[in-house]
Design a protein that fits this description.
Length: 203
């Protein structure tokens, strides 16, 4: 009950601050297993995509969250666990640990996920080069639909060093699905996936 109340509160707050507009170009919102992959400029990106999805998709979609940041306080950890049902990943790889294992488990369970292939936040107009995780997951789960997304303006909602959010109109544009083509290597696919995200900026 408390998690549901917090979910409604955060949804209302995010929509007041950002508008949380969802634009679907090339694919409709559909309850199928998907990997949404997007540009990454703010810790609010995870919340923005969550708020932009319709309720029936939010309930089956799990955002990826950096464990070191989102478990830094009990409140953050509770929100990401109870409200967002996030998948925690460790940004600092240790030993033989496979950083994709939590994502693989989520996809094996039939969940959709939200992934930021840059791996870390960028501050340039265009995304940084994508890391190999998206390609490896696409090969392992060819039945999962890969949907690019462009998050616009969310970095201006919480400027670096500020503690009070600034109301700014934001949007998430979802594009046409892509897939790994026969014989396509990792570099070519990741470059094409990045361009699919960038292309949505001016839609």
């Amino acid at each position: 009950m408390l998690a549901k109340a917090m979910s409604l509160f955060l949804l209302g707050l995010v929509r007041v601050l950002t508008g949380a507009q969802a634009r679907w170009h090339g694919c409709p919102p559909k309850a199928e297993q998907r990997i949404y992959f997007a540009n990454h400029q703010s810790h609010a990106d995870m919340v923005m995509i969550w708020a932009a999805l319709p309720q029936e998709l939010r309930s089956i979609t799990r955002p990826i969250a950096a464990r070191d940041y989102w478990t830094r306080s009990r409140l953050r950890e509770w929100i990401t666990t109870a409200v967002f049902n996030a998948v925690y990943v460790d940004r600092a790889r240790s030993g033989e640990q496979d950083p994709l294992e939590p994502l693989v488990q989520a996809l094996d369970n039939g969940d959709s996920i939200v992934l930021f292939p840059e791996g870390t936040r960028g501050h340039a107009e265009e995304p940084q080069p994508f890391k190999a995780g998206l390609y490896n997951l696409a090969l392992r789960f060819p039945q999962v639909v890969l949907v690019p997304a462009w998050i616009d303006n969310v970095q201006r909602v919480m400027p670096k060093g500020e503690v009070v959010p600034v109301p700014i109109l934001c949007s998430v544009t979802f594009g046409a699905p892509i897939q790994v083509e026969p014989g396509e290597d990792r570099h070519a696919f990741l470059q094409r996936a990045r361009q699919a995200v960038v292309a949505l900026r001016d839609v």
